[in-house]
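Summary for the steering committee. The consortium agreed at its last meeting that each partner would contribute one worked example illustrating the joint modelling workflow. Our contribution is presented below. We chose a case with several input lines so that the handling of multiple components could be demonstrated. No manual editing was applied between input and output; the record is shown as generated.
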Amino acid sequence: MRSLLILPAVIALLATVDAEAGARQALLDGFATQAKAADSGFAGFSASRGENLFRTSFAGGKPDTPACTVCHTPSPLKQGETRAGKPIEPMALSASPDRYGDPKKVAKWFRRNCKSVLGRECTAPEKGDFITFMTGQ
Amino acid sequence: MPTPRSSPVPSLAVWDLPTRLYHWLQAVLVAAALAIGFLAPEWWMGVHVWLGYGVAGLIVFRLIWGVFGSQFSLFASFIHPPRQIWNHIRGLIEGRPPHAMGHNPLGALMVFAMIAVMAGIGVSGLLALGGVENQGPLAGFLGFSAGDIARKAHSILAMALLAMIGLHVLGVIVDSWLGRESLVRAMIIGRKRVPAGALLLNPRPARRRAATLAAICAGTAILIASSLAGMVPASGLIAMPRQAAYQEECGDCHEVYHPSLLPRASWSATMAGLENHFGEDASLAPETAQAITAYLDNYASEAWDTEAANRLRAVDGTAPGQISATPFWKRKHRQIEKSVFETKPLRGRSNCGACHRDAGSGRFDDQMIAIPAR
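What follows is the complete predicted structure of the assembly.
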């Protein structure tokens, strides 16, 4: 009897995980299409470029937030903290399985945080590199 | 009249036990209430209020006992004509005040004055509690501005009482010294020496049954009236639905501030400037921003009559969107050490809920403050 109850739960769980994974892939595909449209020489995303973006200190953004690591800590696996003291779930997909599954949220946070840190919106390759780095962590 | 053989000097039971108990209980409760009111931090207010209720109860008892008590406790027994008061002052100046079996004429005046002032403190305290704090039986009947006037009267009367207590103690010392008999001892054991040649009137005994009946009636009336009054919801607070967008969008980065903590103009300026929101880009999708702005406009401080809403309405002109920049906020938090704000769980001046356990309701009750231990 119990296995009969567990089975739908497992299927439902697999379905959500699958749906999120699908959304993540669609997101990356979208960024790749945009990147190709802007630069025909685009040759795929790079986790190391993503890591570089995550760790670099920029001068063009707002003075309190020169780098992603100010709030997210240097470790993608660790919980970060907003400047007002609220916890931020880890950036790495392995630590926060829900990350990068909701395109609206992804768009919102890239728009705001790129402006805060870099002083401009991020490009499609930058966004793709970043997510590639974080999903591999 | 037979004189007890054991005492060489005839003495008379002046202060009955209820009067003595009343006196000393009142001394203790009033001293504690004054000390807390003037010296203790905000979160002692609950204790202060209960001490106030205690004193009020004692005063109700004293009013009853002033009518039904024994001879020297009766108000009628220590209402002295002006001539007698004047005689007493003259005698005092000459160092030989006339002997009084109960309260002397000046002491009697002080008793009436202190009872009146303590009653005034109790009433103004209850009005302030209801109007300013939205607590107590009058919370549903008084607005902030009326409560704030009562609050000022409460503290002026408390200072007056402090001065009167000083004069009362001074009077007791002077009278004990000039009369060669300790009034403090008399208020403890209840008896006073009868001077030679004094005319002994027949002291009226207490009417205990009448007093008990009156106390039961008064107590029941007060309990019924206050519990009925307490059923009326506090007048300063309104019903406010939770808006998911406000909770989620703002709560992602910081505490979800109660909308009553800033006026409309501050909220709309804040919502119009989200691209640079306290040093970060917090911009929202236009339709989300619009919905949140409308919500804040509905429930901004102008819609509330709480202490926080009234006080924080006066914002700092250079930082109209910053609650911790308002003059009231600064005044209220100036005694808190910087290190408290710097360490967890506060991390800055933006986490009201770290100390105000009821921050989410906008009430900010004094008793709900708990500064976390470091």
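Chain B touches chain A through 22 residues (CB under 8 Å). Strands of chain B lie at 11-13, 191-193.
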